[in-house]
Task: structure prediction
Amino acid sequence: MKVKELYKGLFHVKFDTQYVETSTFMRLQEFYESPFNTIRNKYFTRECYEDRYVKEYGVFDYYTKWSGFNVPGHIVNLFFRVFNEHNDLSKKEYKLFKRVLRISSKNQSNYYLIATHNDLDIDHETAHGFYYLLSEYRVAMNKLIKETRNCVMIKKLKKKLLNMGYCTKFLDDEVQAYLSTDNAKDSYVPLSKQKNNKIIIKRFKETFEKFKGELK
Result:
């Protein structure tokens, strides 16, 4: 596990393997944005989550399904406080907790964690970090989302994201991250090859690249 500050307040946790990454971040991520009301913002055991997941999807494929994670600092702090109170942190979670202590002591809650095990997901997770940390970026992306809200592609993308297991509460954040960083050929973006949709995707990408370039 390596931690690097990519931009001011945005910290990247890099793992060697997908399994170590997902097993470290699973409960933290689901505490933040699980689609299950019995899980989100509540204390839960791994067994409890696995049972709820299998009930919904039929099989527990979490460790191979997800490859990137993102959680705002105030949620990270709350997660470790709640799960510490229950004396229930795995060795991997505790290792992350020790690294987070160094970050939160300097940044309090005004930071953002992203995690990957390969470089392909960094931009996508960075877009989430920008959306949380940078008000100008969030305003710009929300404007684009509002302007394209009735677009068939956007509606299909939201439906696809919900089916994948994303939480309704965070759909706008996911939409801006997918449209601004994924390749147009990516199957996560339905109808992305159509001309009008290419124009929409280009606007999201240009906004992301503009902020990314200015912050370097």
Observations:
- The CA atoms of residues 43 and 86 lie 8 Å apart.
- The chain has a mean pLDDT of 93.
- Residues 135-215 form one domain.
